[in-house]
Amino acid sequence: MATGDGVSTVQIMVKESHKHVPDTYQPIERSVYWARYVDWSVTTPLLLMDLCFLAGLSGANILVAVVADIIMILTGLFAAFGTDERVKWGYYAMSCAALLVIIYQLAVHGRAMAMAKDAKTGNFFQAIAGFTLVLWVMYPIVWGIADGSRNISVNAEIVCYAVLDVLAKPVFGFWLLFTHDSQPSSQVNLDGFWSHGLGKEGSIRVGDDDEGA
Fold first, then answer.
1. Residue 10 pLDDT more than 90?
2. pLDDT of residue 198
3. Buried b / exposed e across 48-57, counting CB within 10 Å, b at 16+?
4. Do 155 and 30 touch, CB atoms closer than 8 A?
5. Tens digit of each residue's pLDDT (9 = 90 or more) over 98-125
6. Is-contact 136 76, C-beta < 8 A?
7. CB < 8 Å & 24+ apart, contacts of 39-44
8. So what's the pLDDT on residue 202?
9. N or C, which terminus of the chain has less Cβ within 10 Å?
10. Amino acid 117: pLDDT
C-alpha cells in the first residue's frame, strides 16, 4: 500500500441542504485501501482459529465463527466502496452483526469450554480473547469515523489501522506463543470434535511411550 498499490478511489455525492435555495450535491473523493481487506480475510480467520482451538470449541462452533468473520470482512469491503449512504451503512450494520456472532462464540461458548479444561487455560483464554475482542471492536469504530462519516483524514485512518494491526497480530502472536510454552501439554482428541470440541478422554499424547512397551 505504501507504493500506491492496493488502493482505489471512491467518489461520493454529499447532499448539502439550504433554506432558501435548492439543495446542492458536492462530489467527494476518498481513497479506499482494499488491500487491507484482503489481508484481514486471510489473517483474521487464522487468529480466530487460534482462539477457538485454545478454548477447545467444537468444529460446528468454529465454522460459525469463521464464516461470520469472512462475512464481516466482505460486508466491510462492500461498505467501503458504497456510494449510496443508505447502502453503505446497511453493509456496515451487517458487518457489525457478524462481529457480534464472533463475540458470542468466543465470550459464551469459548469461555465455557476453556474454563472446563483447567483454571490456568481458562484464565489465559479470558485474557487473550478479551484483549483480541476489544481490539476487534475498535476496527468498526475507526471505520465509522473514517470511511463512514469521513470525520478524520485518510492518513489518520492509516495510522489507526496500523496501530490496531500491530496489537492484534504480532503482539497477539507473541503473547500466545510465549504463554503456550508454560501451559500444560496439549492433548488432542478428535472423537466427537464436530459437536463436542477437543476433549480430554481418549486423547492422543504425542511423545508418550506405548503402554506395555
1. no
2. 54
3. bebbbebbbb
4. no
5. 999 999 999 999 999 999 988 888 899 9
6. no
7. 40/73, 41/70, 41/73, 41/74, 43/169, 44/69, 44/73
8. 34
9. C
10. 85
Q: Which residue has the cell 461470520?
A: 68
Q: Residue 9's CB: how many other CB atoms inside 10 A?
A: 8
Name the one residue in this structure whose C-alpha cell is 458470542.
104
DSSP secondary structure, the chain, as one string: -TTS-S-EEEEEEEEE--SSS--EEEEEEEEE-THHHHHHHHHHHHHHHHHHHHHT--HHHHHHHHHHHHHHHHHHHHHHT--SHHHHHHHHHHHHHHHHHHHHIIIIIIHHHHHHH-HHHHHHHHHHHHHHHHHHHHHHHHHIIIIIT--S-HHHHHHHHHHHHHIIIIIHHHHHHHHHTTSPPP-B--TTHHHH-S-STT-B-TTPPPTT-
Q: Which pLDDT tens digit goes with each residue over 21-76?
A: 676 667 778 888 999 999 999 999 999 999 999 998 988 999 999 999 999 999 99
**Are the C-beta atoms of 106 and 87 separated by less than 8 Å?**
no
**Residue 199: per-residue pLDDT:** 52
- CB pairs under 8 A, 24+ apart, for 164-167? 164/135, 164/138, 164/139, 167/135
Cα 6 to its chain centre, rounded Å, is 20
φ and ψ at residue 46, rounded to 5 degrees: -70, -45
15 - beta bridge partners? 25
pTM of the model: 0.80
Query: Distance between CA atoms of 192 and 87, rounded to whole angstroms?
Result: 42
